[in-house]
Design goal:
The protein is an alpha+beta fold. It contains 2 helices and 6 strands; from the N terminus they run H-E-H-E-E-E-E-E. The protein has a 3-stranded mixed β-sheet with strand order 2-1-6, with helices on one face.
């Protein structure tokens, strides 16, 4: 389960920001997780709650938004929805699809006190 290391990195990032920005507590953390990034949102929330104990993020709500998979077909020159990282283009059937969304893992917002 790599969600534990992701949660630890997230808590470390928040601790660094707490020192730099001088806040005492985090109430809410918003993250965007790509549907094709192999991160299970429920597992990430569970792990985050465990590793946040004793930090400025303890008790904070982790709001995980899933970003659907999207790609750009170089042959069709179209943006297409994809369900898997190496899907064929649903329009032309070719394998020239570059991932443009759905692989990210990004901290987008902190609500602090």
């Amino acid at each position: 389960m790599h969600e534990i290391s992701i949660a630890e990195s997230l808590v470390d990032l928040i601790a660094d920001e707490a020192r730099d920005q001088r806040f005492a507590r985090v109430k809410r953390i918003a993250v965007k997780v790509g549907a094709l990034g192999h991160v299970e949102p429920a597992a990430l929330i569970f792990c985050f709650d465990a590793v946040a104990r004793g930090t400025v993020a303890e008790g904070a709500v982790l709001d995980v938004q899933t970003v659907p998979g999207k790609g750009w077909c170089r042959r069709c020159r179209c943006s297409v929805a994809i369900m898997h990282r190496y899907d064929l283009c649903p329009l032309c059937g070719q394998s020239h699809v570059e991932l443009t969304a759905g692989g990210e893992l990004r901290l987008t917002e902190l609500e602090v006190e």
